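INFO worker-7 received task bundle
INFO bundle size: 2
INFO processing item 0
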Amino acid sequence: MATAAATTTYPVRDAQRDLMRDLPHDRLFATRALSLALAAPLSDADASAQSTPDASPAKWHLAHTTWFFETFVLSTVPGYRVFDDRFGFLFNSYYDAVGARHARAERGVLTRPTLRAVLDWRDHVDAALDTVWGRLDRPARDLIDLGIAHEQQHQELLLTDILHLFSRNPLLPAVYDAAPSPGVPPDRGDTFHHGGVHPVGRNGDGFAFDCEGPPHDILLQPYRLANACVTNGDWAEFIADGGYRRSSLWLSDGWAWVQREGIAAPLYWDHTGGQFTPCGVAPRNLDAPVTHISHYEADAFATWAGARLPTEFEWEAAAQGDDPIGGNQLDGPGWITPRGGSGLFGDVWCWTASAFLPYPRFRPASGAVGEYNGKFMSGQMVLRGASCATPRGHSRLSLRNFFQPHHRWQFSGLRLAKDV
């Protein structure tokens, strides 16, 4: 087993406490330590394998987030010594402005550098960041904020990618050893929301990705939004009623996907009432929010239920006043699975009916970091909220997650809306 958490100078003290603090130094190193804690149970083999081209090895996530800080922050500091000149090619993700890169679908062949070497690189970069902290200018500090948010995104991806990898192993091994949390019976009601003009998008102080703005007004018609996410029990009824066999419920692309891939249930469901989780196979909790479904599945269920998916702006208007760091979100290694509860944040990312498109007057950030979001505004659908695998402190009202409509290895679910 890799003793990842023990190799860093910045051990996990209280991840939730430090991530909630306003001090950038503490937030940075608490974030870096949390990545190591999540990867600590993994062997070198666990951390090197890639189960699908859409996923990345855990080792790659640990390396890429380190590459980000070395490339965009430390490379501007006079006298900084790059750990290994070859790593830039191996662990660049999609930044064309930075240079050539190793193919995404081939990340699983990178058995070298070893996990141990990647952890040594992390120590090298963390020590350098700590040493030069007092000399970083304002642009560098802004890149630190972006790097923290970037690493938090990769923490969730690390969890979902290793979950997918372990699900392909006939032994169905557990990533973490933790007892399941009881589910919370859902509130079956819904809430009326007035139409009218609503402000949306990031407007105020604090970090935000460029795609969260500029702020603008949106006109909404009156609507109702369910107080709880659709549950596993609800989904079982959908299946029993032939939901995956009725073409009339599906978007054309979705029905073709169902037929082509033989889809008949959410990802990780088995035929005995169980569900594969980061803690191994567990009994399926019928009260818990359904998860690991595609946008196609979410839309078909909404049609079956006589409802629809909310737009991302309806979701944002409804979430005004909710606590973005509340609900079931990630605080560290442990029982990572939806359990239900109140509020619009936590448990599962909720698919919306909105395509991931630029807001009015959107302009990508200047330089290479401008490739972070804008280049993906095609063929993606927006999800809102946060999941049980989203590091607490990462989410906010304006945050836009996005994936292609067939993707479902993330902790994705849905909440129903209805017209008034």
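INFO item 0 finished
INFO processing item 1
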Amino acid sequence: MTIHDATTPATRIRFPTSPWLLAGFVVGAIIAVYVQLTIIPLDTKVFGLFENQVDLRVYRQGALHLMDGQPLYEAPMLRNGLLYTYTPFSAIVFLPFAWLDVPPAELLWTALIFAALFYVIVASFRSLRYRVDWRLLIVSASLVCGSSLLEPVRTTIWYGQINVFLMAIVMWDLLRPDGSRLKGIGVGIAAGVKLTPGFFIIYLAITRRRQAVVVAVGTIVATMVIGFLATPGQSWKYWTDRVINSDRVGPTDAPSNQSITGALAATFRTADPNQVLWAVLVIVAMALGMSAACVAHRHGQELLALCLTGMTATTVSPFSWGHHWVWFVPLLVYLVHLPIAAWRAGRTRLLAVTLLLPAALYATVFVWRFHLPEGAMGFKPFYATGMFMRPFPDWLEWFSSEPYLWVFGVTATATLILWGPAEFRRSRTPKPAPRLDRSPLADPAPVGPRR
């Protein structure tokens, strides 16, 4: 098994120092900020970037209910009917924001989202063996601005959602060396707040990191115990009933349900997709995504493996809002890295191809504003974001209705095509001495032209 130790200084490479390249990132960031300010004006009631924060308000209300001894799951948290869907332990985590008034809580939460995005991007580059210097910090800050125009990220900021934080915790945990005794604790904490990150335990299991599995499971159990100690009745209700009640999250046939259930609902025009067909497709998606993640892990592409695992989890989840797909952010970093790796290795033929990959991802998951000046759903004007919320020609609906599933499928398939044959040959021959993988899009050794 070839694993690059991201903490080894000898393997660090510098981000290219070309002033034109760095200037390009900065100019791109300025353009992204301008587009963000104009695509939906910030002062637009409800739909402005900082004019909603409804999910954060639900989190606060859950914490307030916990403080006051009120039930978490019997009634809506707000007048708009939104329910509390997270674990009892999560209400404890949200307590500091309940202690603040709404405006400072929203300001702090939003600032922390941007800080978490910056951390995720820097950690992604660091896992790819880049030195954390002023060049990388400039590029990372620029990508934070650029990533704010990805629908999952903008919607996260707009709703005041938590998924960026959970992703940051998982990445902090799983990008550490395997020798860490507490590896798995971040996965356990994230899953203790929201169940979806628990999917990474499957990834740890199939990559044979048993100690991390034990730590992750033990941490989840600890969060459950804490929840029971804080609110026994609500914990019992959640773990025996609410945990399997996915219709509390949203209607299955919502356009923003970017999961297999959403795809089936859109394809067959039904709010109740066939459960047998859903189960079959879930098994296929898990086999595709997790085998690709395992292959990526074995070839030293740990960041790609984590992205694949995160996307697999959102694909097979009973309901996945667009903002659940924040794993596109580290995937974008990985795709930005590929042309740099190709250039450093002198693989000029691949350079043009790899330059198209981040652009293709960005175009697919861009905010793609849909504006109805006459209004809709009780709002005038009405704004929606995401390719799946816009009307497209019928001949493109196969892609536009579920674009995020296509990103997952293409990424997983490409990973298996690139490294799968080598993995198959390795399994049928005596195990060779460890070496650096030399497949076209692998993380190359720092050779070739550099500045």
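INFO item 1 finished
INFO post-check item 1: The chain is about 60% helix and 0% strand.
INFO post-check item 1: Residues 1-7, 433-451 have pLDDT under 50 and may be disordered.
INFO worker-7 idle
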